[in-house]
Prior knowledge:
alpha/beta; TIM Barrel; 8-stranded parallel barrel; two-stranded antiparallel sheet; 10 helices; 17% strand
Amino acid sequence: MPEFNFNQSKVQIEFPAVMGILNLTPDSFSDGGLFLEPERACEHAHQMVEEGAQIIDLGAESTRPGSSPISEQEELSRILPVVEKLSKHDFVLSLDTTKPAVAQAGLQAGVHLINDVSGGAPKLLDLASRFQSGFVAMHSQGKPKTMQDKPRYGKVTEEVRDYFQIRREEFKKLNLPGLWIDPGIGFGKTLEHNLSLMREIEDFLDPDWGILLGSSRKSWIDQLCHAPDPMDRLGGSLASAIFAISKGVEIVRVHDVRETVQALEVSKVLAQKD
């Protein structure tokens, strides 16, 4: 099992890995408001770990389409009480933030991994390098408030891949102990953009980074299968996770941990040849 030294902590991640989503927000598109209380948030984190999540991704600011940013202080007030409780336990703790001050406070409190939906902001990368944490760089076209206002690409997979390829040397100079890229499903993309990126996910395979995919419960499933309630998108979420892992994705970021782990275990067994 691969071992990483993230932020002065040795952790193991067996790939493919499931990252469980823990939203500490009142307005996330799927589970906003469910885990605002630190005790309830920590209980849910431990439940996801028991179900098979190897990474817990904490987010205190919604980045759903149309969402507005919150203050640095508000984000810190939601994040720190939970980080301080969870960082003492034996699983990988990820922090989903775009604010350097929040990232620094999280790293000082014991976070192992920074998940940056702004695509690798220089200040966040510098912090990850200084603390020697893991890092996820996610592609996004525009800001959450307006990113779904007619997003445009020529060839979406080529453009998103080039975005990361251009930054290869920048990433390598940081000597990060772990780096993953995320094509950013639903972040400034139409249905066809999202489908193309998932179909062509193998185009992002590279020895310099792993791939993380976050497609769980997102609106592309509704557009494809008519499931307006995010809680009714389990089937599409599982299908995309299984497909992604079969194409070489290392980490899938999901809401439904138990079901995803079970689906991946069954698909792995079925793929084995006698």
